[in-house]
Amino acid sequence: MLVNNLNSLNEKLNTLLAKLNELKKLNQELESKNEYLAKSNKDLENKIKVIQAKEKQLKLVSAISDDTENKQYFKNKIDYLIQEIDYCIDRISV
Length: 94
Hints:
With 94 residues, this protein is an all-alpha fold. The protein has one domain (2-93). The protein is 97% helix and 0% strand. It has helices at residues 2-66, 68-93. The longest helix is centred in the middle third of the chain and has 65 residues, at 2-66. It is rod-shaped and about 100 Å long. The chain starts with a helix and ends with a helix. The relative contact order is 0.04. The model has no long low-confidence stretch (mean pLDDT 86).
């Protein structure tokens, strides 16, 4: 009776240990996949930023070339942005 209980307990323990090892392996695979997806997500976010910057450039170029009314506004905007860039460069240099 006691031997049977011990054998049964031993079998259950072995089953639990096997499941634990499976779960550890699965967890490791999921962590690896999560890291890959996080990197892919960051890469896609960077691509979106680049595309958005290009879109803004295209809008500026088309606005400047098409409409003389907005030319001065965009020239002023560009001058302001250049000043901001110069200011940032000065701050970085300090």
